[in-house]
Design a protein that fits this description.
The chain has 477 residues and is of the alpha+beta class. The protein is built from ten helices and 19 strands.
Length: 477
Amino acid sequence: MASVDGLVSGIDVSSIVSQLIQVDGATQRRLKANVTSAQSEIKGYQSVNTKMAALQTAAEALSKAGGWTPTTATSSSTNVAVSSSATADQGSIGITVNRLASTRSVLSTAGVTKDQVVDPSTFTLPVDVLRDGKKVGTLAPVQGTISEIAEQINKAADLGVKAVAVRVGSGEYRLQLTSTTPGKAGAFELVAPTNAAPGTVPASSTNVEAGAWDVLSAGEDAELYLGDAAVPVYSATNTFADIIPGVTITAQKADPGTRVTIASGRDSGKVAEAMAALVEAANAALAEIGTQSKAGVVGTDGKLTGGGALNGDSTLRGLQSQIMNAVTSALGGGASASSLGVQSTRDGRITFAKDKFLAAYEADPRSVQNLVAPTTTPRPDGTDPATADTRVGLAERLRSVAKLATAASTGSLSAAVDGRNASIKDLNNRIEDWDDRLAAKKARYQSYYARLETALGSLQTQSTWLSGQLSGLNSNR
């Protein structure tokens, strides 16, 4: 029912109704404020969750063999490139690159113009292709231009040979045949057609390359010699893998007169970088926990200022304690993280002394690894990380704390977010109920004042009538 403001009474009905609804809506406004607060808390939990997930990733990087025992490979010559896997063996060898790998390729001595239609015999075709003495098949195109003959060869059964028309001069083209496999394994021989079946050795064959084909490259394996004994090692490509296990050697230039030293060793710097990343991730998590759980200050007006969205939150306080406990509690054999350069500070942070860590690692890599990421089976996830376990390393402790906090549904942070979401859903339902209540109240207020206006109007009419009657009586006297 629409309100009519003061047509009779002069009362501002709309203003009165609005003020009454404002008073009645106090409960709904508190519910909306609770939703806003819960949403802010969710953002706080999610922000901490992101930092804890990063801590888990940093800890897992150290727990993996590749993250803990990285190696680096070096070459004494730019003619030889080297790379290594994270777990490559350590060692050193001397090599000499005697020959690079090549792919067998021949070029016809006969040349034709681009659009000239020729018989295949111009290029001594058809021919049998032999590889390792055995017949692979027969190249037998029909007449056409040189490009058409090349296309026929390429579309025929795969004989491991591809053809292309190559321009060698003004208007002159020759036919090039190239093996599709590099090295000795792909080398081929062209012979006059035989009756031998594919895969067999012909009883006799006649090589047709001499005079008809120029050899552009022979099709040989790369060859290098090991050490003073000159032990030969071959590769169909220029890459030699696992001469030192985990190290890949790539020859880029043949230089038979130059000795090249290849060395593989532990990359202590990368391990230290991984440790620094772990400490940095732990500090980032601690800083975010501090920001979100900051208590703030209560002013003279009783209002809290400077507090975090989750000030005083017990879940965050627990995470903070677990991270610090993982660092400060004794490691295996009674050692402490401080012996690795990792130490807590009074202001609730963690420091990392890289030089101290490197000194300990270089002196006894295995012992340091056992303190940080031992290869023994760690305790299963699900146990209380607040109680430090000397059977696991520092990285595993921090990983366990992070995983127990971030695990979907079951993690402490995930559970807190789920709880807030459930609360928001309930609050929104109650807010919707109050929308209906307030709409009903407004309608009742408007109806009441409308009836009041009607009653006042009736009284006014009666008053007017009485005044008229009295006035008439007075005039008749």
